[in-house]
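Practice problem 4.
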């Protein structure tokens, strides 16, 4: 299916609700969507030793949180390189960029560079060409997580579909308590619906699986409360803009068809 207009999407949901699963399924069902992950952007810049990556690495090693402005700068750079923004510079690094020339790109004496250090938007706005171009469709992961972050992002690129995924607390708790992980690869199993062939053993390597230290009820309840505190203002922000859509289900398989149908209705 071809899209008739650009989709700029975020998924919001409590830890363990299945955002990752729904993201993968959306991207598989609608290949026009591009995945843009703030976490991947951070890791890519750190790996390639860009000036921004060096700053990020220093912050993370000291145990600090990466400032919103720094993440916004990464997102601005990525969208600008793709030609989806106006007012930004063109010689910046994207997820697909090689390390060759990265430092030169960041050190180019462009006045926009100095401006973006003070203000990640720095006059960058969604370009007229990209505003409804289906090729400028993306699913943004990891940002925004709070209403203030969403307000800052609005100045650069307005999200036009915010999806709130809801599953009952006790169902999520059961899902989390049944989760086993192969730490070296990140492969995740669940004894309820995606069990390994041999209990406690990774299907691919034969190595042992482990349960994460934070996959227990006490820790999860604290994470859930924190999510509620930050997500309610975020969802209210998008509700006021008329782009919030809520979907409920007991499982990912129940939610996915609803998600696909609404996506097609809005953008197909």
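Answer key:
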């Amino acid at each position: 299916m071809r899209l008739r207009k650009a989709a700029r999407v975020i998924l919001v949901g409590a830890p363990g609700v299945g955002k990752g699963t729904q993201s993968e399924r959306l991207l598989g069902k609608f290949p026009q969507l591009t995945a843009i992950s703030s976490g991947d952007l951070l890791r890519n810049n750190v790996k390639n030793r860009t000036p921004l990556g060096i700053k990020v690495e220093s912050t993370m090693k000291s145990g600090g949180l990466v400032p919103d402005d720094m993440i916004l700068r990464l997102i601005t750079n990525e969208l600008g390189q793709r030609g989806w923004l106006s007012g930004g510079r063109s010689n910046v690094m994207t997820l697909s960029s090689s390390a060759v020339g990265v430092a030169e790109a960041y050190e180019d004496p462009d006045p926009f560079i100095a401006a973006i250090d003070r203000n990640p938007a720095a006059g960058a706005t969604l370009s007229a060409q990209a505003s409804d171009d289906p090729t400028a469709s993306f699913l943004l992961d990891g940002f925004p997580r709070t209403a203030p972050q969403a307000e800052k992002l609005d100045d650069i690129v307005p999200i036009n579909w915010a999806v709130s995924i809801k599953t009952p607390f006790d169902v999520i708790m059961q899902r989390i308590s049944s989760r086993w992980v192969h730490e070296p690869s990140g492969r995740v199993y669940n004894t309820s619906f995606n069990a390994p062939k041999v209990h406690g053993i990774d299907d691919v390597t034969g190595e042992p699986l482990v349960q994460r230290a934070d996959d227990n009820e006490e820790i999860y309840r604290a994470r859930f409360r924190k999510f509620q505190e930050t997500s309610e203002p975020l969802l209210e922000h998008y509700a006021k803009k008329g782009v919030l859509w809520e979907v409920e289900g007991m499982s990912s398989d129940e939610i996915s068809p609803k998600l696909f149908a609404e996506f097609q209705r809005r953008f197909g």
